[in-house]
Design a protein that fits this description.
Blueprint lengths: L9 H12 L29 H13 L15 H7 L2 H7 L8 E5 L6 H9 L9 E7 L5 E7 L5 E5 L1 H6 L6 E5 L4 E6 L2 E5 L4 E9 L10 E3 L3
Parallel strand pairs: 7-9
Antiparallel strand pairs: 1-2, 2-3, 3-8, 4-7, 5-6, 5-8
Helix pairs in contact: 1-5, 2-3, 2-4
Length: about 220
């Protein structure tokens, strides 16, 4: 069911995502939380995001197990948006059979209660804060999806170290795949990524490795 009004810009997206975080326990097969349609990045549309933000919306919707419904004119869809919406690896995260909505694992964003967020959605939205989040989502076969999101106005480096992995029940060496670059990043004990400002994100699939962790260092990823 719909859990938010229309998403038409970065501010309303922030509010929709913030509200839906509180509703994760209600998501299940046959009843997914719907934070609205995918906006796209076509500047000729009435409502649109930047390319970075539209890709981050797709990332977050997949992490939240949300319906992936395109709300823009598909006859004029850009090559960038087509590449975004046809990414089978990200779609697989959204449609993972385990059926669990992802959660914020770490953030430096201000915590706003659900009542305040819903009031803002009906009256006046607050500004998007200068902050970052790391999301995680359990997948079948003890895999995890991990997303880094940058709501701030400067590029940042976000990381997932051994304690981060341990909190996801992953220990020692892990295999990491970049879902937007479609690239295996190898076997590592931690990984980090430069995440671009104003709506940049990165998304990974992480699985346990049987290889000893003693010979591996942090994998650093550059923005695509």
């Amino acid at each position: 069911r719909r859990v938010h009004g229309d998403v038409g810009n970065w501010t309303t997206l922030w509010n929709a995502v913030s509200i839906n975080r509180y509703l994760a326990s209600y998501a299940r097969p046959g009843g997914w939380n719907d934070p609205d349609m995918l906006v796209g990045s076509n500047p000729l549309a009435t409502k649109y995001l930047t390319e970075l933000q539209s890709r981050t919306q797709f990332t977050l919707w997949a992490m939240m197990h949300a319906p992936l419904l395109i709300g823009s004119n598909i006859l004029n869809i850009s090559p960038f948006d087509w590449e975004t919406y046809s990414n089978s690896e990200v779609i697989a995260v959204d449609q993972d059979p385990l059926g669990v909505q992802g959660q914020v694992f770490w953030q430096n964003c201000p915590v706003v209660d659900l009542q305040t967020l819903r009031k803002e959605a009906l009256t006046k939205y607050s500004d998007v804060p200068e902050c970052q989040q790391i999301w995680t989502k359990p997948l079948v076969n003890n895999a995890r999806a991990v997303a880094f999101v940058n709501f701030g106005s400067s590029d940042v480096t976000l990381s997932c170290d051994s304690s981060c992995l341990a909190a996801m029940s992953l220990f020692g060496a892990v295999n990491v795949r970049d879902l937007w670059a479609h690239q295996d990043l190898g076997t590592v004990t931690s990984f980090e990524s430069v995440v671009l400002a104003n709506g940049g994100s990165a998304m990974f699939r992480v699985t346990q490795s049987s290889v000893s962790s003693s010979n591996f260092d942090t994998q650093t990823l550059l923005p695509q």
